[in-house]
């Protein structure tokens, strides 16, 4: 969804015409599982998350600094961190892409009065020209966005949440002479949320404990598929990698 609106800055009289892209999906997962999948202040995990969500559009990224927390013993997805990333331009011409410096806030906000909670991972561009050098000689252009991120909200169903991706850009950044099509780049970033369920499933598979081959049920001990109970006859036997049971083609595909 695309929306135009006026954004008023806090403690000032300045207003900016802005554009907002938003995309929402429903995910079969818990709040904590989704938050662990979208928010991390460790560089290696941050890169995996970005590659999993944005694919080839993501070039590289680094967690530059994590701010100290005021409250201890919180989950790892509660943090405020300074990050840097490079995104591939929609048309791979005129350089490698655009790089961004931003402050990222992540955590869960709880409304005690209505007993509701909302997970968030929000990024806001910051000026870091003196701390992070310009990489123009590598074909990168330092760019900015107003605000972008992911929101996690309840759906009313158990173990199911709603994930919303959004990006807010000032219209002043979208001039025709802009060498990068920032609007299209941010649109693709928001639209990438549609692949989140697949990314989450890959993470689950990576955490599975598989049964060693020598623990598999021998073929001679099973005449029927453990899933559909059909006779094997001339069908090839397979084995479930989690429990070692013998299955047919149907059971293997499931």
Structure report:
It is a single chain. The chain is α+β, with helices and mostly antiparallel strands. It has helices spanning 31-38, 43-54, 182-191, 196-206, 249-253, and strands at 2-8, 15-27, 58-66, 79-87, 97-111, 116-125, 140-142, 147-154, 161-170, 238-239, 246-247. The strands form 2 sheets. Strands 1, 2, 3, 4, 5, 6, 7, 8 and 9 form a 9-stranded mixed β-sheet that branches. The chain has a two-stranded antiparallel sheet with strand order 10-11. It is elongated, with a radius of gyration of 23 Å. The two termini are 35 Å apart. Residues 250-254 have low confidence and may be disordered.
Low-confidence stretches: 250-254
Q: What is the CATH H-level superfamily of the largest domain?
A: START domain
Biggest sheet architecture: 9 strands, mixed
How many E-type strands? Answer: 11
Shape verdict? elongated
CATH class of the largest domain: Alpha Beta
Give the H and E element order.
EEHHEEEEEEEHHEEH
The whole-angstrom Rg is: 23 Å
Total helices: the number is: 5
The averaged pLDDT comes out at: 78
The percent range for strand residues is: 25-35%
CATH topology of the largest domain: Alpha-D-Glucose-1,6-Bisphosphate, Chain A, domain 4
Helix content: 10-25%
- Classification by helices and strands: alpha+beta
Beginning-to-end CA distance, first to last residue:
35 Å
Give the tally of structural domains.
2
């Amino acid at each position: 969804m695309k929306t135009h609106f006026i954004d008023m800055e806090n403690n000032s009289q300045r207003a900016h015409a802005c554009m907002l892209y938003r995309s929402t999906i429903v995910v079969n997962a818990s709040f904590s599982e989704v938050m662990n999948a979208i928010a991390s202040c460790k560089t290696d995990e941050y890169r995996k998350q970005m590659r999993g969500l944005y694919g080839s559009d993501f070039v590289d990224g680094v967690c530059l600094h994590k701010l100290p927390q005021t409250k201890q013993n919180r989950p790892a997805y509660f943090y405020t961190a300074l990050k840097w990333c490079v995104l591939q331009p929609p048309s791979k011409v005129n350089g490698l892409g655009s790089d961004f410096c931003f402050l990222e806030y992540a955590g869960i906000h709880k409304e005690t009065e209505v007993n509701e909670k909302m997970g968030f991972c929000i990024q806001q561009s910051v000026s870091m020209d003196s701390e992070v050098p310009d990489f123009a000689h590598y074909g990168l252009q330092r760019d900015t966005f107003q605000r972008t991120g992911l929101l996690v909200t309840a759906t009313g169903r158990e173990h199911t949440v709603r994930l919303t991706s959004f990006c807010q850009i000032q219209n002043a950044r979208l001039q025709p002479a802009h060498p990068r099509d920032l609007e299209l780049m941010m649109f693709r970033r928001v639209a990438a949320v549609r692949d989140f369920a697949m990314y989450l499933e890959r993470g689950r598979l990576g955490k599975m404990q598989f049964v060693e081959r020598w623990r598999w049920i021998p073929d001679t001990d099973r005449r029927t598929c453990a899933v559909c109970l059909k006779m094997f006859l001339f069908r090839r036997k397979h084995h479930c990698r989690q429990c070692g049971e013998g299955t047919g083609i149907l059971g293997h595909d499931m």
